């Protein structure tokens, strides 16, 4: 069973903790009301779905599409800006709802993370090992305790790293590529994906496979007014599922085509 991945719920709860003074008490109450009226039922319905069939994914996407209008209306009514990170956390949390039931996650004792993911080891000015970490929107990985010299460290090794975007433009695409590069410097085998509701990059400006550290970009909505596309979400889900399944199989070595003479 995966641990806590309710990043959107944490954002809602945090807004009430961050708001100070009587002038903002009404705003806090609005968050509480929104959570009780819309978020809590949405979360409960998502958690009731425990399958991984196409039909199960369709149901999860249907719930997401029904929830998003309430989020957008709440943001508009309360004049909540993008700096609040309120809306992006919906997609970050949805990754948890979407991927939590893949059998390999439980079988391999994997978990979900979004902070402190292993980014490599460097030496500090005194010659001591220093663990580098990286925050990521959503990560499937595993926690290990390792000994380096006389010190013991807890590190999170990523298998799947996901950047979640409301939309992606050229600047955000560059940032996602930089994140993927940093992740792969620390963990070369990690697969890094970008999942975005909308695309605002000219297709001619997107590098071909092998020319970018990102393994794939999934656009799951298209135009602003379109619902989340279930087929696109299933394609993303299936990609992650296949990567995790490959962990369960021994690597197949290529047969030698010939042996060089001594």
Q: Can you lay out the helices and strands and say which pair or pack?
A:
Blueprint: H1 7-18, H2 25-48, H3 54-78, H4 88-99, H5 103-107, E1 111-113, E2 117-123, E3 129-134, E4 138-148, E5 151-168, H6 170-186, E6 191-199, E7 216-219, H7 230-246
Parallel strand pairs: 5-6, 6-7
Antiparallel strand pairs: 1-4, 2-3, 4-5
Helix pairs in contact: 1-2, 1-4, 2-3, 3-4, 3-7
Describe this structure in words.
The protein is an alpha/beta fold and 262 residues long. It has one domain. 43% of the residues lie in helices and 22% in strands. The protein contains seven helices and seven strands, in the order H-H-H-H-H-E-E-E-E-E-H-E-E-H. It has helices spanning 7-18, 25-48, 54-78, 88-99, 103-107, 170-186, 230-246; strands at 111-113, 117-123, 129-134, 138-148, 151-168, 191-199, 216-219. The strands form two sheets. A five-stranded mixed beta sheet has the order 1-4-5-6-7, with helices on both faces. The protein has a two-stranded antiparallel sheet with strand order 2-3.
Descriptive terms for the model:
alpha/beta; five-stranded mixed β-sheet; two-stranded antiparallel sheet; 7 strands
Summarize the structure.
With 262 residues, this protein is an alpha/beta fold. The protein has helices at residues 7-18, 25-48, 54-78, 88-99, 103-107, 170-186, 230-246, and strands spanning 111-113, 117-123, 129-134, 138-148, 151-168, 191-199, 216-219.
């Amino acid at each position: 069973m995966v641990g806590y991945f309710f990043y959107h719920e944490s954002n809602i709860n945090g807004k009430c903790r961050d708001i100070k003074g009587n002038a903002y008490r009404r705003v806090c109450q609005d968050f509480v009301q929104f959570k009780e009226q819309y978020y809590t039922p949405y979360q409960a319905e998502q958690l009731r779905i425990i399958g991984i069939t196409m039909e199960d994914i369709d149901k999860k996407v249907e719930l997401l599409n029904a929830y998003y209008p309430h989020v957008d209306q709440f943001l508009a009514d309360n004049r909540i800006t993008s700096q609040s990170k309120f809306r992006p956390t919906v997609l970050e949390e949805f990754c948890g709802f979407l991927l939590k039931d893949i059998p390999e996650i439980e079988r391999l004792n994997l978990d979900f993370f979004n902070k402190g993911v292993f980014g490599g080891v460097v030496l500090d000015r005194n010659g001591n090992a220093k663990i580098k970490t990286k925050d990521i929107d959503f990560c499937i990985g595993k926690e290990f305790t390792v000994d380096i010299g006389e010190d013991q460290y807890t590190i999170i090794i990523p298998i799947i790293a996901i950047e979640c975007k409301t939309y992606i433009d050229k600047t955000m695409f560059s940032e996602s590529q930089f994140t993927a590069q940093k992740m792969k410097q620390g963990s070369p085998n990690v697969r890094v994906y970008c999942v975005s509701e909308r695309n605002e990059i000219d297709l001619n400006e997107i590098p071909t496979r092998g020319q970018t550290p990102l393994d794939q970009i999934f656009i799951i909505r298209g135009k602003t007014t379109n619902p989340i596309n279930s087929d696109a979400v299933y394609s993303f889900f299936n990609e992650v599922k296949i990567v995790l399944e490959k962990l369960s199989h021994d690597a197949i070595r290529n047969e030698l085509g010939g042996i060089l003479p001594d």
